[in-house]
Structures are given as structure tokens and as C-alpha cells.
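Project standup — Tuesday

K.O.: blocked on the structure for the chain from last sprint. Re-posting the sequence here as requested.
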Amino acid sequence: MEREGLVKPGDRITVTEGVLPSSWYYTIEPAVAMSGNFGNRERLKVREGVVAEVRTDESGYTVFVDFDE
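H.V.: unblocked you, prediction finished:
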């Protein structure tokens, strides 16, 4: 996430799944943040979760989300 305050702990979020040739990535809608790439074993089964934490780091903000799976 590039800007502060777009999501906060406790917010319910929805992600969309993007497909690459051998992996998947996820975007918090509406285009709030994008994940790194995930392999087949790490692919999400659900698309809704709750923001657990937002950390500030050298790349901006990292959003941690809990999913029920």
C-alpha cells in the first residue's frame, strides 16, 4: 500500500485474484494494495478477510490480512 489510511486494522476487505503463468497475486479492492506472487500451494480459497495489521516499511505500508481458510 502506498498511502497511509486506506485500510486500518479491523476493516473487512475483498481481494481479487490475478493470474500469472505459474503463480497468483491478489489486489485489495478498490485497488488499495497488491500482494507479492503466490505459488499453487499458497493460493487463497476465500476472497474476503479482515485487516489484522498495517506496518510501515521501506516500500510504503504492508497490510496483513486474516482469511478464514
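K.O.: great, moving the ticket to review. The first strand starts at residue 12 and ends at 19. The mean pLDDT is 94.
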